Amino acid sequence: MDDLTVQAEALLADMKPVSPSAAPGQNMLPPNTRRDVPGEYAPTPLWRAGDGPATLFVHGWDDTHRVWRLFAMDFIQNQRPTLLVDLPGHGASNAEQAGWPYAGAAVRDVCVAEAPIDTIIAHSFGCIATLRAVELGARADYLVLIAPPLSGTDGGFRGRQRKKGYSDDVISRAEALCLERTGFPASRSDFRSVLEAYEGRTLIIGSEADAECPVEPMQALADGLPNVDVLVYPDLDHRALAQDTGVLADVLAFLGY
What is the pLDDT of residues 196-208, one digit of tens each? Predict the structure, then answer.
């Protein structure tokens, strides 16, 4: 095996997410609210509060459903049915594969099992999983995409690997190996066709202060799409966008609450 391939293999081995503890006491909702949804690739841990058409919250890479403690608890306290998941390879999930195709399938599986879904609210990598789920047939009346890592940003696969010190040649070799072995590219952000076909309303949220996911690709994604709105904040960082009371208020207004 040549040195380039050795380094590419190391990169692929290093791709597993590192999310916070999944101990039962760390979950937002009690154990009796959890079930595992069977799926195309692996079961998905799911917590439900309330009956009826629900809002599904989807976290990002290296995270768990607990990132939604402000948003989701507001929904729960106001008796709005709420669904929380841990994506494949994150938190309480035991899935081996965690990339975007598997995360997208997991979100689709949950949407099918828990239908009808009123809204999907997603953060960061969870936005990619959500768009893939919609492409696979998931149905929801509204999408809220917070800090999506779109093309041209350093928040995607290549940017993350460069920050780890991998060269472009090693990254390219790893991408080729991933495609050869799984049938999927290592990353994907070209989802405009999904929003063009989507019949519901979409809100994309970004921040000028988010170094990981600049707003320009978000605005380009929404350009010319009448059912897509973009909301830009001046000073919130990447994670704060999913935990800010002002963002929550704007999301609630978008949803008509």
Answer: 999 999 999 999 9
How do residues 143-165 score in pLDDT, each as one tens digit? Answer: 999 999 986 545 567 877 888 88
* Euclidean distance between CA atoms 60 and 149, whole angstroms: 10
All domains of the chain in start order, with CATH: 36-154+180-255 (3.40.50.1820)
Q: Report the alpha-carbon distance of residue 246 to residue 243 in Å, rounded.
A: 9
pTM for this prediction: 0.92
Q: Please give the Cα distance from 90 to 64 (Å, whole number).
A: 6
> Directed axis angle between helix 100-113 and helix 125-135, to 10°?
60
What pLDDT sits at residue 18?
80
| d(C-alpha 7, C-alpha 18), whole Å | 20
Mean per-residue pLDDT for 9-23?
A: 77
Laid out side by side, the sheet with 82-85 consists of 34-37, 44-49, 82-85, 54-58, 117-123, 142-146, 201-207, 228-233
CA atoms within 13 A on the CB side of 109: 21
What is each CA distance from 97 to 18, 104, 176, 255, in whole angstroms?
13, 12, 17, 33
- The rounded percent of the chain whose pLDDT value lies above 70 is 95
Cα–Cα dist 55/251, whole Å: 12
Token pair of 135, please? 């492409």
